[in-house]
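pasting for ref
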Amino acid sequence: MVIYVALQKNDNIELKIESVTSQGSGIGHHERMAVFVYGTVPGDVITAHIIKVKKNYAIGIIGEIITEGESRIKSACPVSERCGGCAFRNMTYEEELRGKKNRVQDAVKRIGHIDVEVEEIIGADSTDRYRNKAQYPVRIKDGELEAGFYAINSHRIIPCKGGDCLLSPAEFAKGIDAFAKWAKAENLTSFDERTGRGYLRHIYFRKAFATGEFMACAVVNSETAENPDLLVSLLRENIENLRSVQFNFNTANTNVILGERTETVWGSDTICDTLLGRKFQISADSFYQVNHDQCEKLYTVAKEFADFRGDEVLLDLYCGVGTIGITMADGVKQLVGIEIVPKAIENARANAKLNNIENAEFICADASQGAAELERRGIKPDVIILDPPRKGCDEALLDTVVKMSPERIVYVSCDSATFARDAAILSSKGYAVKRLKAVDMFPRTTHVEAVSLLTKNHD
């Protein structure tokens, strides 16, 4: 009989890392028990110091790296080991892509029990400076402002050196410098989640990559803007293509970043970007994919899977500000977008008008209400685009989709686990997963997108 020695907290063990989890931790096995160690890469042989032991797994931290895995590289960011933003700066991009593709493949087979191969993962041409949006929590201590991102699994701020993050455009650091001078001049305080006090909560930037237009927003724990003219002046000195300065007022004692009211104190309410030849107005609270170039690749795959012939009715559920549907409108007879957020529908209608699209209609409703309205008017979608939030679709919405009986469903997923769950439900209701590709929208982070084509069974 083989006797396995149970791990104990504070044990030090030798461990070989076999793979990486979706959260960025390396996995090894000790006496058949899984041990998770953040900051490791496949092939690493380490000594792991055990800090937590559960029934079926343990968590450790790196004591010493005995042998480096072939994919290990030196991180170009001085704070990446502590910051919760980039989990994969210590490995080659090739290894990162391989792991992300495997994660999507594992989800559809293990969770969805679906026999379909991930055809490819579409990587990024550049893994740095791709984010068109960043929301920085701030800390003001002794009059000096620090901005950064939260440490792993915490709300402890890890400041970016000089305000610069390698995922964001260089202008974002210049913007932080302007905010720091404003905060010092006005003797501002930073928001404290424990007490609910303090003025400045977050610094928020958006950049339209195709046009270069720039938006800056101060998120404050107040109903008033403190000397906005000074902030505008400092930002205009630092940012060449500044188009909008806004204040968002959030007095709720919550970790939700934006409050319900936003006021433009200088410039335009929106900035304009271009995707696949279409123009889009982006407001502070608009949903817009953060990686412009990868978004174009993602939408191109979605359009390929939709396989339009020109006579279809396209239904874009979760349409947001209309980006996916509007980029596909020239390939269909009619586009209908449904979204429950009134402001998003207002933006979608404006974006359709901006692009001279006359075959599009946007309905403000939840999915079932919108479907009932289409049924009442005798409109039957041939293709449905699903681009849900990370939690995926609830079963009632999937029932609504199936009831509308489209020939094809194109599912754009930002979480392969919830996609696999939803695909399994759709498979049980008469749809088959035919194609699946992954797209790396967020290089160096743990996130990966997937696009799938499901077709109606005619058995």
